[in-house]
Write a structure and sequence with these properties.
This protein is mostly helical and 272 residues long. 83% of the residues lie in helices and 0% in strands.
């Protein structure tokens, strides 16, 4: 406890912890809808689209968060135009978006004098450089997104888990799916600055997969995902400090750790 008090007695570590916990909790919740839609690859594509926008903004000398937001929103808008019954499957379109965004990001940053530094920042984030202003914006945007999902969670759940049933009930699939994806895009773009593309993807997938293995009741799944996201963020940041490891990859690894015990627990329950 004394060591933890010493670590988080420093203001920059407290700011980093707040940013990590906020990002982990929010992206873990939103990741549930990606996993339920069986489009896990979308969880990788969205951070890369945000990275592409941020890279363009860095080279242009403007704030990267605005570029990341523009990149994710434009990417989501383009992907929403893909028809589920079209000749190109939705997963194929997401894969193309991921490949294009990844390669374009590296090509853009290769033209920058600080390309290597920018690549590391986009991939792993700069969580130790988080400012209180960024935490304020994260809390505000994440809070607004939480309110939106509280008001519309049934519609979001229907269009994610069973879109055919949602259409039968008269829900406007494109509208609700678009609103869901735009909320997801905004949160991913905001988290990219501190978390980076790798950590954002891990937050979206790791805690949500573990939560879905733990329970079948959606309220329990939501609570479990949020708790796991927050705890893995805090554990990863603390471990990176004690072991002198890069914070981004350490947090990403900790976000994936809960999947194994969740799988083992589910296996033991089935065998009992």
């Amino acid at each position: 406890m004394t060591a933890l008090a010493e670590i988080y007695g420093q203001s920059f570590m407290r700011d980093a912890l707040c940013a990590a916990v906020l990002s982990g909790a929010m992206l873990a919740y939103l990741g549930l809808f990606i996993v339920l839609r069986r489009t896990v690859f979308l969880g990788a594509a969205l951070p890369q689209l945000a990275a592409l926008g941020a890279a363009g903004a860095m080279v242009a000398g403007i704030p990267p968060t605005g570029g990341a937001l523009a990149g994710t929103i434009l990417g989501v808008a383009a992907l929403s135009l893909v028809s589920p019954r079209g000749r190109v499957p939705a997963d194929g379109a997401v894969g193309v978006a991921f490949a294009l965004a990844s390669s374009a990001t590296l090509l853009i940053l290769a033209r920058s004098a600080q390309g290597e530094t920018h690549v590391l920042q986009i991939l792993s984030g700069d969580i130790l450089g988080t400012t209180q202003v960024e935490i304020f914006w994260m809390a505000g945007i994440f809070g607004a997104t939480a309110l939106l999902h509280y008001a519309c969670w049934k519609e979001f759940l229907f269009v994610s888990y069973d879109p055919d049933m949602a259409a039968t009930l008269g829900l406007r699939i494109r509208f609700w799916a678009g609103l869901l994806f735009f909320s997801l895009a905004a949160c991913v773009a905001l988290a990219l600055r501190v978390s980076g593309a790798i950590v954002s993807f891990a937050f979206l997938i790791g805690p949500s997969v573990a939560a879905l293995l733990v329970s079948r009741r959606f309220p329990v799944i939501i609570a479990t995902a949020i708790i796991l996201g927050a705890l893995s963020a805090a554990a990863g940041l603390t471990l990176s400090f004690f072991e002198d490891l890069p914070s981004g990859p350490t947090i990403a690894a900790c976000s994936l750790v809960p999947i194994l015990p969740a799988m083992l627990g589910r296996w033991f329950v089935r065998e009992a």
